[in-house]
Amino acid sequence: MKRFLAVLGLILFLAACSNEGEGGAKEGNVVATTGQIGDAIKIIGGGHLQVTTLMGPGVDPHLYKATQSDLTKLNGAEVIFYNGLHLEGQMQDIFDQMADEKTVLAVGTQLDKNALLADENDTALPDPHIWFDIDLWREVVAAITATLVEEYPAHKEDFKVNEEAYLAQLDELKEYATSRIEDISAPQRILVTAHDAFNYFGRSLGFDVRGLQGLSTDSEYGVKDVQNMVDYLVENNIKAIFVESSVSDKAMKAVIEGAKEKGHDVAIGGELFSDAMGAEGTEEGTYLGMYKYNVDTIVDSLK
Known about the structure:
Elements: H1 2-20, E1 28-32, H2 35-45, E2 49-53, H3 68-76, E3 79-82, H4 92-98, E4 103-106, E5 118-119, E6 122-126, H5 134-151, H6 156-181, E7 190-195, H7 199-205, E8 208-213, H8 223-235, E9 240-244, H9 250-261, E10 267-272, H10 287-302
Parallel strand pairs: 1-2, 1-3, 3-4, 7-8, 9-10
Antiparallel strand pairs: 5-6
Helix pairs in contact: 1-2, 2-5, 5-6, 6-10, 8-9
């Protein structure tokens, strides 16, 4: 545990260096859409890059629309990274247009399609929440590094050193998560959340995952969906469900009330980070800290 906290401290320090490096030290102007992507770029780039992230804590990328300020940042960027796989669905036209003028990389498209999950109701629609599978995220980190090396070759060696160190930290995070999940018996590994953001998490760590809404928070849910979820909780004797930091908890409270009416008590096991990370400068504001926080919250509530 001490080693893991030390790693988180190093990540926060490197991120600070990226944002507050000495004048003239930062060569590249890079923009990322989500916190997960921005965090990886900051770590790999060290102090060489000026990294701007458009979507902060509590922001839902499924519904996000670019502001005039965002357009200014995107226009001024040398390189743009976004998740793709329809996560930032309201911004796709912008990325397509800017790709004619500069390097624009959808990191999700760099992954093997066979490794991606899909919407159970529409197999042509990929699940964009790839950051919840650490093995897939390692490949995203490699794709980011390769792009940065191509764009800023003078810093190739630094980028590669930072990548190697970060990949080792991701491996350590996976070991930690796998170990902690052992505290939950197999029948209790049922994760119920507001929307289907955790299917990669479930696949990689052996959870049955259920979301009230579909892959996107833009999808509609109705009384029948709430009732079906209530029935599932009662039938499986599930005692805890989870809300998400970037999704309204209104629907999940309705589920809790519905279960109560059937004589079944369900508690909110905690608030998970799904599409957005925590506040910048906190452990949860990094990928490593966010993932660890989610694991600890889930295990402590379900074990």
